[in-house]
Design a protein that fits this description.
- The complex is a heterodimer of chains A (about 400) and B (about 230).
- Chain A has about 400 residues and is of the alpha+beta class.
- Chain A has 12 helices and 10 strands.
- In chain A, helix 8 packs parallel to helix 11 and helix 9 crosses helix 12.
- Chain B has a single domain, classed as 3-Layer(aba) Sandwich (Rossmann fold).
- Chain B is built from 7 helices and 10 strands.
- In chain B, the strands form 2 sheets. Chain B has a 6-stranded mixed sheet, sandwiched between helices. Chain B has a 4-stranded antiparallel sheet with strand order 2-1-4-5.
- The longest helix of chain B is centred in the last third of the chain and has 16 residues.
- Chain B starts with 5 loop residues before the first strand and ends with a strand.
- The model of chain B has no long low-confidence stretch (mean pLDDT about 90).
- Classes of the chains: A alpha+beta (about 400), B alpha/beta (about 230).
- Chains A and B meet through helix 1, helix 9, helix 10 and helix 12 of A and helix 1, helix 2 and helix 3 of B.
Chain lengths: ~400, ~230
């Protein structure tokens, strides 16, 4: 029976091209939006997870639970780093301190003097969280070298080997500090940079020199890489045991917090929009099929009189729904992907958004969720017209059709 | 009754309407034998179509019993009644009710496919039926491309698709001009001559005059049952 039902539904669809095209176009529009909402619902979390994991460190140590670089520093960080490095659960530790600096004089004839930039001081070298694009990373032996981000390199026309004079702007109210000259070792991509960020990275001793020694032995954050066989949670617990006053979070903890708090806005928006989209999709198909069925009541009654069973005519309506929603839903996936690229580009232009963060991220399992939602919508939309057909009184309908 | 295709025994059919119950059939008894040609006449609303629907197993009487080849139709589940209609009964409607998205060929083929006929058998039977009704050259036309008479001939071919014992026609010439109507009546005559039992509900005395047995109805009752 299935072959006959599908063939009949197929003929009904292709031989009523206007109705079918209208239905498919509607499903494409709605399906594309629904698909995008699904990509948005998890996109930021997935993208943020990739961003965190890309650094190669899976535990972060802070002085308090304030946001990184917004709270107090960790005092006597050098000693703490040594104790953490000695833990069997830990593979490596990176001490990080971030301060503002001003361009004192660039090598080019640019007019950027006095412009503020972000200086990331890290130790030890060779464990960078950035990706070198040109040149090389910070040398382990000598100070005075910097890696700069592409934005700054482009603005100041910096190349590998050129020099840059910076003046520390380390804390409000501090005296004007003397400029320090650096040599550009490499040009790098910093994962948390937004589109307009100007960032440099150097060794902690250089940052200290830039700030006139006021940064001391502190750190804004310690980045810790756990032993792969023991995992981040074990490393975090061991660090906590070393100093219970520290705030220790794994990437997973951060992700959960962001998912629950910072990104919940997007999740709620995407959920509401997905629900509304789904509802409109349901309405579109339900109205289309109901109108189509109501126009054909006489034919359906005649088919029942000729001998087609109730199951057979009901299955025909369901199959028509599945064909329209299947075709439209399938075509909606590439349409949704194209739309998501466009929307993503718009959203990523928001200030403060890291360049490598995406709002819409595709995951294969999204296709499954999408397919299930669209399938449920097709079935739900077909229920009412199926009920009309299933309960159609044959004789009364034939009589009514003749009278009308 | 021996040799009866369908028999209605003291059948009543009452419709519950907002203005009160309407008695469409009132204690009607009738038997149709194989090969009979029966005309049913009477004023509008006298119960002709309802009788046809009850005999054709598309409606269940409020009281009484309908037996089709000794099967109690009222006790059959819906799927069984559908199967009975598919294999044993052919229906012709005043408004043809062909499926507009199917060609003449596909409309005739549809009941055969539903009955499980194989492809070769369906093709041979469809070709034979379209030739029988004189529409072999219109096989690939859809109903919108056919005249009223042609549509009714396709509907007749569809009704005959599974070689039914009983053909029920409800005002088969009601939507047609006189000349086209006569073609349809001639086709019914031929069917009867070929051995199919035919029951025709009609307002047209010319159509009724072809039947060998005439039922006159009034107010839901058969008031005259005459053989000619």
């Amino acid at each position: 029976m299935i072959r006959r039902v599908v063939r009949f539904a197929w003929l009904a669809s292709v031989r009523q091209p206007a109705r079918t095209a209208l239905g498919i176009l509607g499903v494409i529009a709605i399906g594309a939006l629904l698909f995008d909402m699904l990509l948005l619902s998890h996109g930021l979390v997935l993208s943020f997870r990739d961003l965190l994991n890309r650094s190669g460190f899976d535990v972060r140590v802070l002085a308090t639970d304030a946001r990184p670089f917004a709270g107090p520093s960790i005092e006597h960080a050098g000693d703490l780093v040594r104790r953490i490095e000695a833990l069997p659960e830990v593979e490596a530790v990176l001490q990080v301190r971030v301060r503002q600096a001003e361009i004192a004089e660039a090598v080019s004839d640019s007019r950027n003097d006095g412009e503020s930039i972000e200086f990331i001081g890290t130790d030890p070298p060779g464990r960078a969280v950035w990706t070198i694009l040109e040149g090389r990373d910070l040398p382990s032996a000598n100070g005075g070298a910097l890696v700069v981000n592409r934005n700054l390199a482009r603005q100041l026309k910096l190349t590998v080997g050129s020099t840059l004079r910076l003046r520390g702007a380390c804390s409000a109210g501090s005296a004007v500090l003397p400029p320090v000259t650096f040599t550009i070792a490499g040009i790098a991509e910093f994962p948390f940079d937004d589109a307009t960020a100007t960032t440099v990275a150097g060794r902690l001793e250089d940052l200290q020199r830039l700030c006139g020694g006021e940064t001391g032995d502190g750190a804004d954050i310690l980045m810790v890489r756990s032993r792969q066989d023991l995992g981040a949670a074990a490393a975090a617990a061991a660090i906590k045991r070393t100093d219970a006053g520290l705030h220790v979070v794994t990437n997973q903890d951060l992700l959960e917090r962001f998912s629950r708090v910072e990104f919940s806005y997007f999740r709620q928006i995407s959920f509401v929009l997905a629900a509304v989209t789904l509802f409109f999709g349901f309405l579109l198909i339900a109205v289309l099929l109901t109108a189509s069925v109501n126009q054909r009541l006489g034919e359906v009654a005649a088919l029942r009189a000729v001998g087609l069973s109730r199951t057979r005519v009901v299955a025909g309506v369901l199959c028509e729904s599945v064909l329209i929603v299947g075709a439209g839903g399938g075509l909606a996936v590439p349409a949704g992907l194209a739309l998501s690229i466009w929307l993503d580009r718009i959203l990523r232009e928001l200030p403060g958004i890291p360049v490598s963060v995406h709002f819409f991220v595709f995951e294969p399992r999204m296709l499954l969720s999408y397919g299930l939602l669209v399938g449920a919508s097709a079935l739900g939309a077909a229920l009412y017209p199926m009920w009309i057909i299933g309960t159609l009184p044959i004789a009364a309908t034939l009589r009514r059709e003749v009278i009308s | 009754m021996i040799g009866t295709i369908v028999e209605a025994r003291q059948v009543s059919r009452i419709f519950r309407m907002p203005a009160g119950p309407v008695v469409a059939l009132n204690d009607v008894s009738i038997a149709i034998a194989p090969g009979e040609y029966v005309g049913v006449v009477g004023p509008s609303g006298c119960g002709k179509s309802t009788l046809l629907h009850v005999l054709g197993c598309v409606d269940i009487p409020t009281a009484g019993e309908v037996r089709f080849r000794d099967l109690d139709v009222g006790s059959l589940p819906d799927a069984e009644r559908s199967r009975l209609r598919l294999r044993e009964i052919g229906f012709i409607f005043q408004r043809f009710f062909l499926l507009p998205m199917l060609t003449a060929w596909e409309n005739v083929e549809l009941p055969q496919a539903e009955a499980g006929a194989d492809r070769a058998g369906r093709q041979a039977r469809t070709r034979e039926l379209l030739e029988y009704v004189g529409l072999a050259n219109r096989a690939n036309h859809r109903p919108s491309e056919l005249s009223g008479g042609e549509m009714q001939r396709v509907a007749i071919a569809r009704a005959l698709a599974n070689r039914p014992q009983l053909l029920l026609a409800d005002e088969p010439t009601g939507e047609l001009d006189q000349a086209t109507g006569e073609q349809i009546v001639a086709l019914l005559d031929r069917l009867h001559a070929d051995g199919t039992a035919v029951v025709v509900v009609t307002h047209d005395p010319a159509v009724a005059g072809r039947a060998a047995r005439l039922l006159k109805m009034r107010d839901g009752r058969i008031v005259e049952d005459s053989a000619r």
